[in-house]
Description:
By secondary structure, the protein is an alpha/beta fold. It has 14 helices and 15 strands. The strands form three sheets. Strands 3-2-1-4-5-6-7-8 form an eight-stranded mixed β-sheet, sandwiched between helices. Helix 1 packs parallel to helix 7 and helix 11 crosses helix 12.
Amino acid sequence: MKNKTEEFQKKIQSGNATIGIIGLGYVGLPLAIAFARKLPVIGFDTNGDTICTLNSGHSHILDVSDKEIQDLLSSGMLSVTNESHNIKKCDAVIICVPTPLTTNKIPDLSYVKKSCMTVCDNLKKGHLIILESTTYPGTTEEVVVPILEKSGLSAGIDFGVAYSPERIDPGNKRYTVSEISKVVGGITQKDTEAAVSLYRIIIKDVISVADTRTAESVKMIENIYRNVNIALANELALIFERMGVDTWEAINAAATKPYGFMPFYPGPGIGGHCIPLDPYYMSYQAKRYGFIPRFIETSGEINTFMQMHVVNLIEEGMKKAGIKMSETTISVFGLAYKKNIDDTRESPAIPIIEELLRRGTTLKLFDPYVKEIYANGQNIGSETDLTTTLNSSECAVFLTDHDLFKTPDTLRQIELSSVQVIIDGRNIFPKAPTGKVYLGIGKPHCLK
Ligand SMILES: NC(=O)c1ccc[n+]([C@@H]2O[C@H](COP(=O)([O-])OP(=O)(O)OC[C@H]3O[C@@H](n4cnc5c(N)ncnc54)[C@H](O)[C@@H]3O)[C@@H](O)[C@H]2O)c1
């Protein structure tokens, strides 16, 4: 293996190694682009539409431009395909497929297993296989390696295996793939070294850890840390609302402390493919080790409750304005789970929309980034004009803090609109709009 690792390192340093990326979504596509600027990349995806879109020079991910795709395709540094036999042409293969939950909220590793079976069918000596999908500690050793070894080759001897958690933050212009430090752990020291030298081609700061289990734990820590701290901010918001304290003002003032404090803010709940899911991955594995993680699970419950809190605030606002829920039109502004992106996966907007429909309200949805959202068993389209949407409803509910909603022009339009009730889930309004019933998460009540 020593010679194989050195051979591999030489190949990547001389620009002759080919990198395969399996799964060209929010994680895989930006990674493929970053590598393709340095080394030839073959991107694999089982979704035929994604392959067609990319091959016609268009990006389906907001953070990647059409021009980047077109330039790299035409220079031959990037090719995209669903033909898995091309894995044989690669020196390293990075797996970035989804890791969702089943309906019973247990880890669904079917995508990881399927992609590993595909790699296994095309595995060759000297391959380095890296898993980037978020998962519980132990997955690489317990799930990935046994599948790959069905090839008859031995992990750590004939081929290398490593795990590296992905830290990309979609929509974040400040920290792109190459600017985010990367943690890597292999099943052997040599595999760690090989993976570190691969990532150093595109990322300056690569940190090696003892093994794959430690690298997997890093991702769990990062996302559970966010989950519990958001839950804490949410719980404090529920308390401060009753105490007449503006939670946002208090948190921002607390954040002036120069050490020992990092601000997290309340909101209508958590979304995306990571923070709402990852704690369940950790819980699942913890229970297999005979430990019931109460703190982690309680945090999830508090964050989920915030969706119901939004509905309660809407009901309270309507009551104050003397409007019946069932006889009104409510506009929901912001469908993406966080600002300035188009991702609606696990968005708190979905259960809120479903609960409002269940209560018989007429709904209008508006998001500048999202065309439609799947809720209540159907795709519901976003309106195209913010002002028209505002003026055709009695109540406006803000669930995402897209920059567009916070411009002075939009805030003025909201104030001038015929909307009577405003529910602010994200501290959009610097002060309560005049002449409206205004209720917000973490805001003192009764701010008419
Ligand atoms: N989205 C994020 O912000 C983010 C951040 C860090 C980590 N992650 C983790 O990264 C992983 C990928 O997430 P994502 O957001 O990129 O998902 P995604 O759904 O955007 O992309 C996954 C892609 O994999 C493809 N795919 C599925 N099975 C495949 C297979 N067997 N072979 C080839 N392609 C296959 C899908 O068609 C899809 O295009 C997940 O584990 C996620 O938790 C995501």
